[in-house]
Every structure is written in C-alpha cells, then in structure tokens.
Amino acid sequence: MRIIYSVIIFLSFFISAHAQAPAQNVFIITLDGTRWQELFKGADESMLHNPDYVKDSSLMLQQYGQGDAEERRRRLMPFFWTVLASQGQLMGNRDLNSKVNVSNLYRISYAGYSEIFTGFADKIFIPNLAVNNRRLNVLQWLNKQSAYQGKVAAFCSWNILPFVLNEKHGTLPVNGGYEMMEDDDSTSALINNVQQTIVSKGNTRHDLLTFECAKNYLQQHHPKVMYLGLGETDEFAHEHAYDTYLQKIHQADAMIAELWYAVQTDPFYKNNTTFIITTDHGRGNKNSTWSTHGFWVKGSGQTWLAMLGAGIVPDGESNKQQQLYQKQIAATVAALLGVNFTASHSVAAALPLDTNLTSSKKNVAVKDR
Ligand SMILES: [Zn+2]
C-alpha cells in the first residue's frame, strides 16, 4: 500500500512539475476582432439564416450550425476545443462569468495591439494609421535584453502593426502587410513571388501568406519570442460577410494547430514553448452590430484569452468568476520567460500563472472599466 501511495505522490508531483515547467520560448498569436461569442458558442444560428450575412445558408448550417453550442464551437475551432481545451486554458466565456476586457477606451485595433504589447491602456488616441507608437512594448524590450537579442520577430497581416510595434525605432524586426521576406532560401523566394503577383494589395495581407512567412522564419532562425498577427477575420466582419468571417476563424484554428505541431515536433521548442492567443478587440454583441466595433458599440471591449504550453496549468475552459484585462498580457509574456518587463509608463501585473487564476481579482489593481 505504501508503495502505491509513494507512486501516486511521485506521479502527481511529476505531473504538476511538468505542467508548470518554465517557458523558454513564447509565441503570441492574435486573431483580429474575433468575438468571444463565436469562440465559446460556435456559429450563431440566427446569423447563419440571414441572407444579408451568409450567401449559402444551407451549406454553412451543415458545416457550422449543427448541434448545441459545444458541438458548434468544436466544428468551428477543432484545435481549440480538443488540444487547447484539454492541455491549456481558455478565458472569456462570459456565460460562465469568466471575463476578459480591453482597458483602453477606443476598442479599435491600434489601441488594442498597443495595450497587448505595452501592458498599458494609452489615453492618447491614435487612429488606425501609420503613426509610430511612442510607448515601449514587451517585444522591443525583450529584443534589447542580451538573452533575447536577435531572437524576437513579428509577422502580421495588417500593415499598420509595424507602426504600433514601433519598428522604425530599429529594435525589432516586423514583417507586416505585403512586406517581402529578407531570407534567400527557396521558400522565402516562393512566398515573395506569390506576394509580387497579388494585384490589389489592401492594408491586410492574406493570413495564409503571413502564416507561411512566420513558419518559414521559425524553421530557419528559431526565434525565442515570435508574434503572429492574423487579420482577415476583422476584414470580412467589416464587410458583413459572416460566412467568410467563420471560414477565417476556422482557418486560423488550423494554422495554430499546424504551428503547435511544428513546435512540438522540433527539439528546440518541444515542451518549453508557450502560446498566448488573443484578440485586439471584440465586436458588437447584437445581430445588427456584430460587424462593427469601437467606442460606441456595445460588446467591443469584450475579448478572450487562450494559453497553451510550458508554464500553463491545463485547466481548460475557465468557469471561475474573474475579470482579466488585455493589458496584463505584456507582463505575462515576460513572466513566462522569467523576466520582469518595465517601461516609463505603468505596466499592468501579469496573470497569476502558478494558480488556476482564482486569485486574479486580487492581483489586478485596475478600476478603469
Ligand atoms: Zn476592425
């Protein structure tokens, strides 16, 4: 009997030690303007029936509209609701009182990305334009630390993100919009050829190209901190295309699955890498407002957060009554790596990673929402 107890004690110690092993690499992934409603409840059936938002309702209903919320969300985001739900954490299901919010007033992309990476909800309004952010972000800061110098990289679909991340400051490489890859390997050459052939280039690059850029860079250079910013979800939502918005969410889930597989089959990253996945803002919470977001649109401040990998307790979908904020992510990225991000502006406290987030209320001294 004593042997059995010893084995149980050893196993439980091993499992908890394994789950909370510190990260050596952190990847931040964002899905622009993707609502918590679709993540946690799957496709909205009433929207699938609406010809203003969906071109072929019967096909979309067949793909994403069957069953209860749990089945619908699994159909929409199979990686999230299999691997991530069993091995990671998902916060922001407001039906379970788990809340994640932006702290900034504006609820648009520039403000959201700035808050995620600087850990600070800037009161100064910067519209979604090519204006350099004066605030220090955690990626820039890490790239200045000797352990991470030259080991931080960002790839994003939106061509304004290099300005939000202050690439011109010269301390962080950001590949944004239809920017060419600088490497001269055959995959980079292929990506660049494809990018050159795209005739009408908007502000947001095809996410698949951004993803291929990031994946190839990962394989060639093994960055320790990488940001992948996907943007098409927001683009199609603004066009009222609920069908394409769903397809882009589904595609993002598949890309994250592929990236996780690449990480877990690479000895450099295996079991020492953490994914933090989130969005820059929510959207309207009604069928009449879902396509838009901003200061006046109710629901725009509601976001979500998912974490998977080293240092993350596998608690699955959170049903804890809690309030988390987007601005906590910057310090969390640093904390996962065992360092403390500081800047001339205030930086919100990291999420409490060594618990199942029940104590998060105590740790967040914020009253701005
Ligand atoms: Zn938008």
> How much beta, percentage-wise?
5-15%
CATH superfamily: Alkaline Phosphatase, subunit A
Query: The biggest beta sheet, please?
Result: 8 strands, mixed
How many domain units?
1
Secondary-structure element order, N to C: HEHHHHHEEHHEHEHHEHHEEEEEHH
The count of strands amounts to 11
Give the structural class.
alpha/beta
| Text of the CATH class | Alpha Beta
Bound molecule types: zinc ion
State the helicity in percent bands.
25-40%
Rg result: 20 Å
Which ranges are low-confidence, i.e. pLDDT below 50, for 5 or more consecutive residues?
12-19, 356-369
Q: What sort of overall outline do the alpha carbons produce when their principal axes are compared?
A: globular
Name the CATH architecture: 3-Layer(aba) Sandwich
CATH fold type: Alkaline Phosphatase, subunit A
**Spatial ordering of strands, largest sheet:** 5-4-6-1-7-9-2-10
